[in-house]
Design goal:
This protein is α+β, with helices and mostly antiparallel strands. It is 49% helix and 18% strand. It is built from six helices and seven strands; from the N terminus they run H-H-E-H-E-E-E-E-E-E-H-H-H. The radius of gyration is 26 Å and the shape is globular. It starts with a helix and ends in a 5-residue tail after the last helix.
Length: 232
């Protein structure tokens, strides 16, 4: 039995070492993320149209990660690029207790989040704009799941940022009713790994039903064929 115990321990030890290495790789990934972020005029005129861009990480914003025994290689890392409040230039009294005091329509919450799970692999999550007036149906979309930190090169990060900016446009209230933006969100939904599992189940059930119908048809055909009396 000790041989089985040794195999199990070896596999877990290997997995733990792999997770440690990926968390160490996070440091270089975060440097690449910051390098790409510096290419963006995050406080400029165009960024202001989105709500101004911010880059943050859990180790820089969460006091819980400032303990002397908490390091980047023994904690779950996370970094996020998000937008602030986006002013829409429209005043209203919808859902207001004071109908004589209008407030400006605003939206916020759009972000692209890079986070590590316990294995050290990285998930990339998109979140949409939200406001007290309107929001899209989805809470978020998973763009990348189970990626090695070193696979997220600067070019890969630029591609993800391009998708994020496009998603900001697609989920803003000001873009409501745009069919092309709706199709873009549908495409993101198809890419989401959570929906892929549902789609696989749906496809399996579809072919299962097709197979049952085909077998039933084959049974009827076989009955007719064997029961038919040929004149020659």
């Amino acid at each position: 039995m000790n041989s089985y115990l040794k195999v199990a321990a070896s596999k877990l030890r290997k997995a733990k070492n792999g997770a440690y290495l990926r968390r160490a790789m996070w440091l270089s990934f975060e440097e690449r993320l910051r390098s790409v972020f510096t290419e963006i005029d995050s406080r400029g005129f165009d960024a202001d149209e989105l709500g101004t861009l911010y880059l943050s990480s859990n180790h820089s914003t969460n006091p819980a990660y400032n303990k002397p025994w908490v390091y980047r290689h023994n904690s779950l890392n996370q970094a996020q690029i998000s937008v602030g409040w986006r002013r829409l230039g429209v005043w209203h009294t919808i859902a207001s207790d004071n109908l004589t005091n209008p407030k400006e329509a605003m939206e916020a919450g759009a972000s692209i989040c890079f986070s590590q799970d316990i294995t050290g692999k990285v998930m990339v999550l998109l979140s949409p704009y939200k406001s007290d007036l309107a929001k899209v149906n989805e809470e978020n979309f998973i763009l990348v799941f189970g990626a090695e930190p070193n696979d997220l090169t600067e070019n890969a990060i630029r591609g993800l940022m391009k998708t994020f900016f496009r998603y900001c446009v697609a989920t803003s209230m000001i873009s409501g009713g745009n069919y092309r933006d709706y199709l873009f969100r549908l495409w993101l939904g198809l890419r989401d790994i959570r929906n892929r599992k549902i789609q696989k189940i749906a496809v399996f059930r579809f072919f299962e039903r097709v197979l049952l119908v085909a077998l039933a048809a084959a049974g009827v055909w076989a009955t007719l064929f064997t029961g038919n009396k040929w004149p020659f």
